[in-house]
Prior knowledge:
mainly alpha
Amino acid sequence: MPSWSAAWHATAIGFMANNILPFRLGEVIRGASVAKLSPVSFPAALASIAVERVFDALAVVALFAVALAAGALPVDLTISGRPAGDLVRLVGVAGLVAILAAVLAGIYPERAARVIRALVPWEKLATKLVALFESFAHGLKVLQDPKRITLAVLGSLLLWSVNAWSFGLAFQAFGLPGGPAESVLLQTFVVFAVAVPAGPGFIGVIEAAMVLGGNVFGVPEGASLSAALAYHILTYIPITLLGAWSLYRTGLKLGELKERE
Length: 261
C-alpha cells in the first residue's frame, strides 16, 4: 500500500501530466509514479485508479440524481438529445456492474484466470494476460474491505460536492446563477466531457461543457464562456505547478514515466 506522501505526489504528477499531455495520459503516468514511489506494481496501481474513477462517476451521477429528484433542474432536461434521467440510470447501472465485476475478480482470481485461458487460445499470450491480471487484481483487493469502500464512497461524495461548489463560485464571480443546482449541473457536464480523451489540459472541452451547462439556465454564451475561461485558468495553473514541484521533490522524470506506457 502506498504512503500518503507517495499517493499525493503521484496524483499531483498525474494531474499535471493531463494538463500538458493529450489523451488523458496523466492517468497512466499517475500509476507509473505510484509504482516508482511505493512497493506497488504498475498494474495494481492502474487497477486502483480505475476503481477510483468508477466511484467518482457514481458520486457525480448521485449528486446529479439528487438535484433532479429535488426538482432543482428542468424536468425536460436532455443531454445529447436523451432525457437526463436516462443518463443517470445508465451510468449508475454501468458503474455498479463494473464494481461487482471487480469485486468478483478480486475474490476469485483463480476462476478469472481460468476464464482468460479459456477465451485466449494462444498459450503464451494467455500466460502473459493471466500474469498481468494477477498484478491488476492485487489493486482490486481494496474492494474486499467494507470499511475502505465506505470511506471511499464518503470521500468521493465529499470531494465532488466541494468540486461542484467551485463551479458555482466561478459563475457567481461573474454575476451568474451559481446555486447548488447550477453547480451540480455544470460539474456533470464537465466531468462527462473530459472523460473522453482529448488534447492537453482539455482546452476548449471544459469551456464548451460549461457553456452548454449555462444554456440550460438561460445564461448568455459569452457570459458562460468568460466564467469558464477564468475557472479553467485558475485551476490549470496551481495543479500544473504542484505537479512540477512533486517531480522535483521525488526526483522522478516525466520522460521516464512516459516510457512505462
